[in-house]
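Final paragraph of the annual report: two paired records, presented back to back.
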Amino acid sequence: MALKRELRLRRSRDFQRVRQQGRSVASKLLVLAWAPTESDQVRVGFVVSRRIFKLATRRNRIKRLLSEAIRPCLPRLRGVDIVLIPRREALEVDLQTLRADVQTLLRRARLLLTDEAFGRQRAAGRSVHKGR
């Protein structure tokens, strides 16, 4: 199932802002770019190059896989726009491998809330993203 509309980056200028003004980390499978926002909202976008994946069906498949890979992490993210850019090798791995890679990149970028901070926000009654 796709991410809710309010959880997705949709405008070209938002993607450009993240890529130009944000920071990034990379792995063998993915590039994760992010930029802080003024709200607590988290939005995620996917950029899948035609140069890497020629067929639209393959580009769409990797977007669906990335969407599912980041979904479990959404409740532990706050106030950031994220762009995920897959590399060619990403199409050859399964969902569990992509999920682990996304979590590793989010930890390296220090974007995931710690267990303690996550618990405090839940106790304070802040909404937790359901992603559905």
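The closing record of the year follows.
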Amino acid sequence: MKSSTRQELRDVVVGLCVSAVVVLAIVLVFGPSFLAGASTYQVYASFQRTDGLVIGNSVHAAGVKVGEVTAMDLVDGFRVRTTLLIDTNVELDTDASAAIITDGIFGGKLVLIDIGGGSDLIEDGGTISYTEDAVVLDDLFGLIISQARAGKDVGTKEDNR
């Protein structure tokens, strides 16, 4: 064999090995849930305010990601009906609750589910009845500032007596 043919053969083998390593890495990173056919079920939760919550945000239970927000629709007098896709290994009781919280001080929003302790389970397509709306930091800061001003006004009036 000519040396150029050996060089080409070596290049092809190296290329195939690199391709195999890349495919293996992708399978290891994304494959376990995809290959296992990670099944999910859908539940709904309605909120008055969902400020900052968007499709694709995480759903957590006990600090662990158990699903994601897949849809948000305006229904029944300006309530927001969120569709949550939950892993099937997470069983939600009929007294489960959902709250929209901030992930840390400056993080994005997520839905936090308290799984509940009842004996009946929410089935696929069921609804989480107990919900808590998102806290809007602007509203909270406004309340704190107004309380501080009210306290300052009271202190000034007492000083003038």
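DSSP finds two helices and eight strands in the chain. This concludes the annual technical report; the extension proposal builds directly on these records.
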